[in-house]
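Record type: ASSEMBLY
Status: queued
Input:
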Amino acid sequence: MQDFIHVKDVASVGEGKLVSVRGWVYRKREIGGKVFIVVRDSTGIVQAVVGKDNGDAFKKAEQLNIESSLVLRGYVKREPRAPGGFEIQVIDIPWSFVGWQFPINEDAAKADSEYLLDMRHLWVRSRRMQSVLKIRDTVFGAIHEWFRGNGYYEVQAPMFITSAVEGGSTLFEVNYFDSKAYLTQSSQFYLEALIFSLEKVYTVAPSFRAEKSRTRRHLTEFWHAEAEVAWAGLEDIFTVTENLISHVVKRVLERNLEELSILGRRTEPLENVKPPFPRVSYDEAIGILNRKGFDLKWGSDIGADEERALTLEFTQPIHLHHFPEQVKAFYHRNDPARPETTLSVDVLAPEGYGEVVGGGERIFDYDELVGKIRRFNLNPDDYQWYLDLRRYGSVPHAGFGLGVDRLVMWICGLDHIRDALPFPRDMRRLKP
RNA sequence: GCCGCCGUAGCUCAGCCUGGUGGAGCGGCGGGCUGUUAACCCGUAGGUCCCGGGUUCAAGUCCCGGCGGCGGCGCCA
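Status: finished
Output:
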């Protein structure tokens, strides 16, 4: 077996070296008795040239379609006319697979259409998706890196559950032998159970929401990074989320400048991301928004349009905190100093992207939790084991959930969350 | 749940308002070009104009119904 190199290393092996690369046809042009093949692999693109005098390889090269695969061998040449300044002068093509006519062309790619979603299993090969996927890899890696570097245990919660985490949210029902089960919409309750064992825990797992949402920031299956910390309060969640997000962004800037550039993503908004993030109370937000022309009453929720307007006032992600009780789920702890509000926080990504994190302090007192469940017209019987946690050595604690796909969407500057992951699932899309 | 939009070539779309022989670009195929960069130039093939009904001498175009799809809001991460 001979040694192969990756496309990105072609320039550095030095002119005149004989190299072998394996990849796919990114572009093919025939002119002047030569075939120019731009070869793509997981690391980049490089131009290869096959001359007509090289009869056997020339014939093979001529037959290749876009995205056909090939192995080629040739000499590296410094060539200012080639993209990247180097090309491979092919001496032979030891292996090739002549693919069918590739169904995605430049026109379809430019249109950014529904068609590309139907063709996603092939579109993942595009430089654009390739770049998103590399950044996504950095993001997931950096999340694990940060939690593990800060004393958290990684845990796993079940995906099959029997009742809702939050009343009102819609669950996917599945057949579970002779009974019904549901797909989890959050691992939070399980993490809360686990803090009494491990104190600081996190998980990165899918969550499922059967909401009929048709927006650019909703999926029915999304990747949820959740953490829960014993003895922690709202201030700790501010600190944890701003440090976590800043770390992730820093890693992306270290590793993915090329990918950001392929995506046409400006890096300035990312370079601004450093702790601490501005803290904006719900009260302040209502004031800011009403000065900007909204007409919001205290107690109304801050919707997508309002979030967008609010984030445009800042150059960093912001901590929006102290939401009124009625706009947050029942498990949020009310602020003893101001009981109509909760010790809750959303982190809003800048540039109009909006909510990427929701979290805050949880109710740790049994009677307080039962009372609030009733006040929200829910049935305490549905929360038996969750209430149990408040019976045996309960402690103040706090946690949060981060929508990883939303974070990737913002970091990449994407228009739609669907493009932040390879095979998105939403209300109307279950394939490929 | 609410509001709005669309369905014409493999893909992206124009044509519809104001009815009169189905169009463009990209892609395919054939040819040309001795260095292309989303190559270019010439030629050529390719259509159930979503389906059904109606109006009309005549419907892709107007009307009614159906089907399929898209965007946004709410909800949330």
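Annotation: The CA atoms of residues 356 and 407 of chain A lie 6 Å apart.
Annotation: Chain A has a mean pLDDT of 91.
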